[in-house]
Amino acid sequence: MNQLTNIMKKIAILGVLAIIVSSCINRSARRSFERYGVHGPYDAIIVPGVPFENDEWSEIMKMRVHWAVYLYNQGTTKNIIFSGSAVYSPYVEAKIMALYAEQLGVDTAHIYTEERAEHSSENLYYSYRIAKDNNLKKVALATDPFQGSFLRGFANKIKLHDIGFLPIVFDTLSKIDLVTPAIDPSTAYVDDFKSITERENGFIRFQGTMGKFIEYEEGDDPKSKKNK
């Protein structure tokens, strides 16, 4: 009986901690959104990809796409850049997210896809380059607070100081009807696919996440901007 009581106490403590952490994350996301949201409308937001598996989107992809559509509908951004190659499954993540966004009402003329990135740091940088190459000058990252926190630090590391941050605010997202529209994923399918887990070991993937393999455009390499 005492053992059961102790287990229940631990579960209760973990539940309270989860609520506290969630509340802190949401407050931090809201502060960031309020700080950068006032500088809108943005020419584009960057939305990093998530694997599409078992012919359905994950809860994380659903959140990111719906948040991007919300920002688009609110006029916070004029365009959306979805980013991600076929990494863990044979579907190009950027194309899948674009298909969902189209079905949720985003004009295809305002959707860009970055289909090269295999790591989150690459999502940020390669999408940033797409924005600049298309004269989309004011850019923000729009993703969940967890990934956003890491990529904010990475942006500072490589000296991309002109990027805004519009993380998902969960109490705002909770008011959105997170419907799942029907899409045809076959257009995003890649033949002869090989998962990144078969091509790279865990250490190499970690290095990729940290941006080690990014191919920088001239003038973007942080090593050349040490004194800037």
Describe the structure.
This protein is of the alpha/beta class and 228 residues long. The protein has a single domain (29-225), classed as HUPs (Rossmann fold, 3-Layer(aba) Sandwich). The protein has helices spanning 2-37, 59-73, 93-103, 120-133, 145-157, 170-173, 196-199, 202-209, and strands spanning 44-48, 80-83, 111-114, 139-141, 163-165. It has a 5-stranded parallel beta sheet, sandwiched between helices. Helix 4 (120-133) packs across helix 5. It is globular, with a radius of gyration of 19 Å. The model is unreliable at 4-22 (pLDDT under 50).
Radius of gyration: 19 Å
Number of strands: 5
Mean pLDDT: 88
| Shape verdict | globular
Number of domains: 1
The CATH homologous superfamily is called HUPs
**β-sheet strand percentage:** 5-15%
Oligomer: single chain
Q: Main sheet: which strands, in order across?
A: 3-2-1-4-5
Structural class: alpha/beta
- CATH topology call: Rossmann fold
Keywords:
5-stranded parallel beta sheet; alpha/beta; 228 residues; single chain
Chart the SSEs and their pairings.
Layout: H1 2-37, E1 44-48, H2 59-73, E2 80-83, H3 93-103, E3 111-114, H4 120-133, E4 139-141, H5 145-157, E5 163-165, H6 170-173, H7 196-199, H8 202-209
Parallel strand pairs: 1-2, 1-4, 2-3, 4-5
Helix pairs in contact: 2-3, 4-5
